[in-house]
Amino acid sequence: MNIISIIVKEVKQNLRDKKAMAMMVLFPVLLIIVLGAAFKTSFSEDTKIGTPKVFYSIEAKGDAAEYLKKFINEKTTPKIEYVKTSDIKKAKDLLVSSSEYSGIIEMTEDNKIVLYKNDKGDMNLKGGIFESMLSGFVNQFNIITEIQKVNPKVIPDVLSDTNADYTEISSINKLEKPSSLDYYAVAEVALIIMYAASVGLYGMSSEKNSKTRDRVLSGPVRKYEFLFGKTVGGVLITIIQIAAVVAFSKYVLKANWGNDIFTVMLILISEIIMAISLGVGLGFIFKQESAAGGILNFIIPVIVFLGGSYMPIEGSFTYFSPVKWVNKSIFEVIYSNDYSKVVPAICINVGVAILFLLISTLSFRKESV
Predict the structure, then answer these.
(1) 3-26 pLDDT tens trace
(2) Measured between alpha carbons, how far is 353 from 273 in angstroms, rounded to an integer?
(3) Residues 102, 96 contacting (CB under 8 angstroms)
(4) Burial of 256 from C-beta contacts in 10 A (0-12 / 13-18 / 19+)
(5) Which residue has the higher pLDDT, 245 or 47?
(6) CA–CA dist 366, 362 (Å, integer)
(7) Closest CA to 82 of 54, 61, 101, 102
């Protein structure tokens, strides 16, 4: 009963602080909107690369040469601009010295096709486009050659079908990817949860500084009841705030939180427990509130930066951040239906929480009231 009373009191006290409540809800919403708009192009797959310009030279005669000419004169998507040249050496010099041309296609007299590609800057991407298309032509020509060996009569019908597609490439692992809004909806919620550690820190220190803690503990309330009640109260009020942010981003901003919101919220709740426990623990480790606050303000930006809450960041060292596990597990649940990182993420958060709660419990026992 004492624990429940302390929890209710903690929730009510935080709900009365309208300024703090508004900051915990409005600040992440503002970050989601601003960062989602600012980095929209970085998450877009519609990259404009321009029209590749390619030199070509055909010295060969016969069917192979005619097939290549037909390929060059066809309208393709994406569009490629072909420029005929009779001087391969000059074309090579321009390819090296200029950023205007993406490559050279040369068909020698012995029907050999030679490809030269410009690898400088975005020319490498443009060159890759026509290289891929030329590879498709070669595959098609090889198929026609084989057909000619078996039944040459059908070749005119095959060549007359300009829309024929002899190969099909299907992706079995193409996954939906988050937009900038989707990404920062998750990332900024994980960020603001870490700043909720101040709820745990200042919730305990304010009681101590105002002497209300001593008055409460002088009654029938035990230390573990007080500690547990304050921690759970901080967790509950933060869950309310985060639920409001998630709901707003999902239903108003239309951010993608996936179909399994229960698992996503379970991961976020584990992070909330970890953050509140971290704040409580630092309050006992550093007796002065200002020192504990300074440490908290130092480590949180590092944790959330490694976690990718400011921008996507990869590397094995980033997994030292609990926020990285939170973000990664949520994204994999939403976009890959992969639950392999859910348990590790929750275990890491709960493990950190238990560590700091143990520190708090042992430190609290030694304090005199």
Answers:
(1) 888 888 888 887 888 888 888 889
(2) 6
(3) no
(4) middle
(5) 245
(6) 7
(7) 54
